[in-house]
Design goal:
The chain has 274 residues and is α/β, with parallel strands linked by helices. 35% of the residues lie in helices and 16% in strands.
Length: 274
Amino acid sequence: MKRNLLSVFPNKKPIIGMIHLRPLPGSPLYDPFDMGMKKIIQIALEEAEKLQDAGVDGLQVENIWDYPYQKQHFSEATVASLAVAVSEVSSKMSIPVGVNCHMNGAPEAMACAVAGNAKWIRVFEWCNAFISQVGFVDSTGADTARLRSSLKADDIMCLCDVNVKHGSHYIIHDRTVAEQAADVESEGGDAVIVTGFDTGMPPTPEKVAECKKAVTLPVLLGSGVTEENACSLLSIADGAIIGSWFKEGNKWKNPVSYERARSFMKEMEKIRKE
């Protein structure tokens, strides 16, 4: 089955806003008294509505507050809670929704996507491997693709990072970013995501251009996109996932700012026309 961005987003160069769920059940920071599931969902819906009203093309729900992150054997409570959040956001909003499970919980994200009616998942390491903040993170594409097939969920896209933020890629330093992007395409990924070194840091235009030349897949920006660099980066890339810039003070832990998101999307409308 051919999966592509146009099957999910009506606009070219789609902009995906982030729904950063507060600490979920099963994580060390979860607070059932002051920040239980009811309040977590309430905040998620409030922020989703702000981003939707600002004009973003999609929303990605993720458990970014669940640090220190797991890399395998995810808590059943966390996965169940993430699925509930995805379902709530998807059912209440009119724009498409995706999901990411930290750290590289792609099979878990796929299960959440099926349960919550999401249209894509983000995968930090579809193929190859790297050393993240939580240790060695191996590829998960083979397991995720087989799970998608078994769940009859062939329409769910897998958006796959190359040289993802949050770690070191020295163990594969003899392979260029472009070669790693080509690996994603040859191993069945549906799109390539290019990031900077950490959350809030942009990739260079050169890095984005290298990936564009190496693959026929869409190439998305996965970190550090701002109103100032949007034109230079999105003149090359096919879309972006934006978290920090849509938050107050450009800090991912802060609440979503409708004003910042709306200002960015007005600039995005100009970029699309050009």
